[in-house]
Specification:
Layout: E1 12-19, H1 29-46, E2 49-55, E3 59-66, H2 74-81, H3 87-102, H4 106-117, H5 123-142, E4 154-158, H6 162-173, H7 175-178, H8 192-197, H9 201-211, H10 221-234, H11 249-257, H12 264-267, E5 271-272, H13 274-277, E6 280-282, H14 284-293, E7 318-319, E8 328-329
Parallel strand pairs: 4-6
Antiparallel strand pairs: 1-3, 1-4, 2-3, 5-8, 6-7
């Protein structure tokens, strides 16, 4: 039976993961670039914000901010439609909408708008549109039919706290390092950090939101970039030639094999299933509160929501699931 997806209240933050069917390695650099362009178009249309992301050969991750829904004017709707539809289709919609308004048929005009605005400020609609758009593009160019994606996408609700969002963003931007593709995350252009280092404004805006202060006060990119880079290197990159500290992959394997625990810096260099299968991640209070809102998703004997992450030393982040099988997988040794 399909379990209801865990959603936040108001402005919410999610880690989203989706894989190619049969986990085929079909996303080369050309396809990754197409994915990036479609993702940014869906972002602009939907009103959601991609804080950071990564696309690999058979799957992708996105850290997504879903704001509180806002009223969308007719003019704003038409502006956003241009991100997803060709000019002819948008002009037809604009003409139809204007005619309905001019003739006092506001209920019909609102119904027309709702066909598009219902897809805004919504986690599932964001992912559905992104996957459908990419599938249509890929199938058309490769003369194929059918689904491109493996089952249902995964999502984990993250707390809106700097600790939780720093951890998630670092984990996502270190994917190419964990996979052994690059030694430095800035060298992988199909991720938020790689885009930001290359000067892409929207990617920088996402990471600024990850790193901003709790009161929402904005900071400039130059200062935050240094801090975020420090977090990435502190949390995963080893470069003996530059005498830079990092993760010893063999040590990580040994600790896990012996049933020991990793600190979060070491864990982020591994595949951490809590970030894709944990349902909820944040402080104890956040996880417990969300657990009680979704009480029917859990067993009747369970009394509390927050669980420590196995294999990871206590770090003030908790999850809703205590995974029993392979919660942390060692990194690839290049």
């Amino acid at each position: 039976m399909r379990v209801a997806r865990i959603l936040g209240e108001g402005e919410s933050f999610y880690h989203i993961l989706s894989r190619i069917v049969d986990r085929r390695l079909i996303l080369d650099d050309t396809e990754k670039e197409r994915f990036r362009r479609i993702m940014r178009a869906v972002e602009a249309f939907s009103g959601c914000q991609v804080l950071t992301w990564v696309c690999l050969s058979n799957h992708w991750h996105i850290c997504l901010r879903v704001p509180e829904p806002e009223p969308v004017t007719d003019k704003e709707l038409i502006r956003r439609l241009y991100f997803l539809y060709d000019s002819t289709a948008v002009e037809q919609i604009a003409t139809e909408l204007a005619d309905l308004r001019a003739n006092g048929r506001d209920a019909e005009a609102d119904a027309l708008k709702a066909r598009y605005t219902k897809r805004m400020y919504n986690l599932s609609e964001f992912v559905k549109t992104l996957k459908q758009r990419f599938t249509m593009s890929y199938n058309r160019r490769h003369d194929r039919q059918g689904t491109l994606w493996e089952s249902r996408f995964k999502s984990v609700l993250f707390e809106n706290s700097r600790r939780a969002l720093w951890t998630l963003a670092s984990y996502i931007d270190l994917n190419a390092v964990r996979a052994g593709i690059v030694a430095d995350p800035q060298d992988y252009r199909f991720c938020g950090y790689g885009e930001a280092i290359a000067g892409v404004k929207i990617a920088r805006e996402g990471l600024i939101r990850v790193m901003q202060s709790p009161d929402g006060k904005r900071a400039n990119w130059e200062r935050l970039a240094k801090h975020y880079r420090h977090l990435l290197y502190q949390r995963g990159v080893k470069d003996p030639e530059r005498n830079r500290g990092g993760i010893d992959a063999e040590r990580v394997k040994e600790v896990l094999a012996n049933g020991g625990q990793l600190n979060m810096r070491e864990a982020l260099h591994c595949r951490v299933r809590y970030f894709s299968d944990g349902m909820i991640l944040g402080s104890r209070v956040f996880v417990d509160e969300t657990f009680h809102r979704y009480r029917s998703n859990f067993g009747v004997k369970r009394q509390t929501g927050a669980r420590n992450m196995r294999c990871v030393r206590p770090n003030r982040l908790f999850t809703a699931r205590r995974l029993q099988r392979d919660p942390v997988t060692p990194p690839i040794v290049c």
